[in-house]
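Moderator note: this is an archived Q&A kept for reference. The question asked for a predicted structure of one protein chain; the sequence and the answer are reproduced below.
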Amino acid sequence: MKELVRKCCCDWREGKCRLSSALEGWGCKLLTCMPDKMPKSDRDKARLFASVYQYAEKVGVLECPYYDEHTIDRTLDDPKQLSAMIHLECPTQTELLSDFITRV
């Protein structure tokens, strides 16, 4: 398991892992693979799904026992969530870790 995912997983508090308090995102705050535009077809959605899933594999999120990969599908089917994600700036690793660094 990648170090960042391990740290996040160790600090799990039986809540939801969200991109922000207002946005669920891909169901994990570490999945910062933001869409640059709204998918217009099923093919576009499939490409975006593949991109997010590959990123999840790369950073180790799929190894997290709390992660539900079906959240990617739910987010793809939610235009409001996708639209909000398009306008977000990707958080830095420090920002991602800040919520559990302050508790330690």
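Archived answer notes: Residues 3-101 form one domain.
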